[in-house]
Amino acid sequence: MEPFSYTKPAGLNAAIAAGERGGRYIAGGTTMVDLMRETVERPGALVDIAGLSLRDVAVTPGGGLRIGALVSMSDAAADPRVRTTFPVVSQALELSASPQLRNMATIGGNIMQRTRCTYFRDVTAACNKRSPGSGCSALEGINRSHAILGDSDHCVATHLSDVAVAFSALDASVHLFGPQGERSVALRDFLLPPGTTPDREHAISPGELITAVEVPAHPRPLRSGYLKVRDRQSYEFALTSAAVALAIRGGTINAAKVAAGGVGTVPWKLDAVEKFLVGKKPSAQLWADAAARSADGARPLAHNGFKVDLLKRTVERQLRIVGEGR
Ligand code: SF4
Known about the structure:
The chain contains 12 helices and 12 strands. It is α+β, with helices and mostly antiparallel strands. It folds into 3 domains: 53 residues, Uridine Diphospho-n-acetylenolpyruvylglucosamine Reductase, domain 2 (2-Layer Sandwich), CATH 3.30.43.10; 111 residues, Uridine Diphospho-n-acetylenolpyruvylglucosamine Reductase, domain 3 (2-Layer Sandwich), CATH 3.30.465; 102 residues, CO dehydrogenase flavoprotein, C-terminal domain (Enolase-like, domain 1, 2-Layer Sandwich). The chain has a 5-stranded antiparallel sheet with strand order 4-5-8-6-7. The longest helix is centred in the last third of the chain and has 19 residues. It is globular and about 60 Å long. The model has no long low-confidence stretch (mean pLDDT 97). It binds iron/sulfur cluster.
């Protein structure tokens, strides 16, 4: 680890000022400290924002949800307002990381977390995300865990946040505060696919920080849940996952919100699946026909072709679980 300065600003404006001067924000520290130890990250200045007042959870008028950026993953998962309004969010959080990490890591940090691509974390390997223009070791390397959707010839790393998949399904937005004031951006516009600049991961400006994540109100009654498929049952990232929310009234699907994880360079919103489901009556055939659309456009690599079928089966199973309660 290399030398760095450390400051703990008293308020939001002081934090922004320090961030604008080039300081890097740290809250739970569960990603940044690891990366600093591995010299992947070499910040000259850390700005500790853990003490800022961004820990509120609130149900918004109309029945949406606003979660402060510094609410810990474990507190958000356990919050009764989260559990009752959007169980998919609680479930995604509880299936993430380990209890110790969930106690420290924050909602904002979880969304900002960097990839777990092993080549990204190996400073001797070529990696366009860590060192732009150096190449991508994963393209011809061991790429079993990498993306099949949203990839580019420059980077195929997955975004591994579980709760971001739930937020993506629910059309959440990210609230930001920075030198230019407040703004809000849809999560699907905030998390950037790699394209030709995989080192640029977020639509965030210098000095800006996340203050909250907001889930809009959705038609009720809404059933939702998260399914995660992984190599082992705890402390493991997703090979595939599915976040599903369905509003079913009078035997017809009025609204469908679906996203997949473990397969995309960003949480992968399944627009075609959602569109196919709305207006139809739940049935086993419907779940299968909808899920068949979940891997449209997939570009598997040498070692991750299995994800195409696994994704379809994951989505089909979670549609059935949420749609039929089993
Ligand atoms: Fe780096 Fe992305 Fe390639 Fe991994 S997949 S080595 S993060 S450029």
